[in-house]
Amino acid sequence: MGTADYMSPEQARGLPVDARSDVWSLGVVIYEMVAGKRPFAAPTHSDTIVSILEREPAPLSRYVPEIPAELERIVMKALAKDAKGRYQTIKEMAIDLRELTFEAKADRPAQFAPGRHRAYDSRSNGERAETRIEASARSSTPVDAGSTLSVEYLVSEIKSHKKWAAFAGAVLILLLGGISYEGYRLLRPSNLIGASVRTGTKTKSPLKLEPLTATGQSRTVAISPDGNYVAYTRTIERKSGIWLRQLATNTNIEIVPPRSLIYGLAFATSGQYLYFSRTDEPTAGPLRDRRELYRISLLGGVPTKIVGGVGGSFSISPNDSRIAFIRQAINREGQREFHLVLVNADGTGEHTLIAETYPEGFLIPVWSPDGQSIICTDGNANGGGLNIRLIEVAIADGTRKELSAERFFDIQKMAWLPDKSALLMTARKNLAHNIQLWRVSYPAIEFSQITEDSNYYVDLSVASAADKAVASLETRISDIWIGSSSEPGSLKRITQAISSLCWTPRGQLVYTSTASGNKNLWIMQPDGTEQRQLTNGSAVDDQAAVTPDNHYIVFSSNRTGSGQLWRMDIDGANQIQLTSGAAKGYPAISPDGKWVLFNTTEDWHLWKVPIDGGEPAPLTQYFASRPAVSPDGKMIACFGGTESKRELLIVPFAGGQPLKRFEFGGYSARLQWTTDSNALIYELERDGVTALFKQSLASGQPQEVITLGEDVLFDFGYSSDGKLLAAMRGGWHHDVVLIRDLNRY
Known about the structure:
By secondary structure, the chain is mainly beta.
């Protein structure tokens, strides 16, 4: 499987593919050679998929005005979203490419494309008669000397039109030697401009990724120690089942039927059992994701519960006798704690090896090869900076040592390579980066990045006795939908966006998009017109809030290394930093426009800072996240938490203890006040369906306002006049790939 940049729309959707997918990929290659950039380039695997599925590439004439219009037509036809509108075979496309060169040779040059958008006929031209190039492609015989004249003309064109010389090179390869379409793979940018893999200072060829699933439903995966079996989840309507595939025969059986969400899979070292963690019963409060650990025979049967209260990842010891896992708890002071716990394989002998208090926390444990220690990730995963490190904890006495000064923004999974000389891990150094594969030598602890591609690696498992691994790749697809607030059926998809959105007082929408290739802020009209980029650069710019006078936009950006608050004019000019130090986020602006409220992401306390900058002042000494200021300026709504439940808090604007508390058994990306300051609107998911609810400050049960369906709701917002509703909707897609030849790394 190639990178996402060359995937056809049907391949991106997990549908069956045929030769028309190859036509698409060749179109991408030629487009890049002519334009000098990929037609659907985006910073992440997820964003690339969105671009492939929803966006039309810019006309080639925008980058190379002198390009022949016929060449532009050929490329755009190859990139038709509907496979029926493309060339049906590579041979058919080759005929048009060849005829283009014959036109040139005969002094009948095609018209040059105008420097503006064109409409392209995407209908198929039907079957074409076989020509010499098709016959040559079927055999190994080069085309005859008649082709040489075309080549000579192309060479002369290269001299006079150097900007489309790259295309000429591609045509030469297709025409000279009569090679088949497989030759196009030699033209891929990874082979022309350097490999996409980096390990230390050595350059190696890209990993070979074999797709094992194409449903978008498989986030969690494990491979057996002998490399013969792969266990993976399939999740539908928030219920996960476990499937087992025998790689040699490609047969699949379901060994655990769907019941609830499954979060982790691991084979026993012996290969006889499969362990998994799942949430059996939903619980309220900040620890609502506590999971139970089970074991099941590979032949199926009834799973055996091993231990409860598993709040993170787990790892099986080399001799299968013990299990290490992470548990989260609330101490007597109301602080969250992370415990590294050991338990016997039968669930007895539970023992806390070491504990620490939030914001520091253990996340991913893995046993050392000799079984004498646990290597674990440690740090603040919510701080917005480079805070995650590797530590080693001795089994004998719980002493810990830091293995390296190297820091990461995020580490998702770790597993030993077969020879135990190094760990393979999925990680990223910065929020703006994709999660990639890294190698960590042991015991030297030297880090080297294996992949540098557009994929987003989340789960990972390595066969201990075979040169194989499996990983799950994540894709996020989300869009902004806008319509009447009183008619949920009127919402229409407007444009691609990620993360967050915000209405301006004058009815425009500020949102985060990857349309520029980076995660920048944009602004547009509700109908999608007048889209304009406000920020630029490789940093992540997000979480916008607009002042009531429509003058400023306050937003979060990690351009200085950690998330900080910035302010700019409504047109994107005059960008200045408002905060510094530890990471901060989730800005909210007071109705008088004088104050910016925000969270410190180390402890999630609430602070405020003047709109013109200055010394921040604390508002709470307790957990109070995602603030929203009431229209009358008297109250702040935010999320809080206690040991037993998650809460919706109403805090006085001056800070201090909450005025009101409401039970809140879910998650919402945003709190929005009604215009009369008497109620709050937030999202809740119930039975797989997302809806907006209104909570009156006069107490009582929340009332459903609008149902938005089964899509994931990433953010929402009502316009200032309450007439329009914007919803950022979409979902996560996960599929499993097989990785071979690990010994090269």
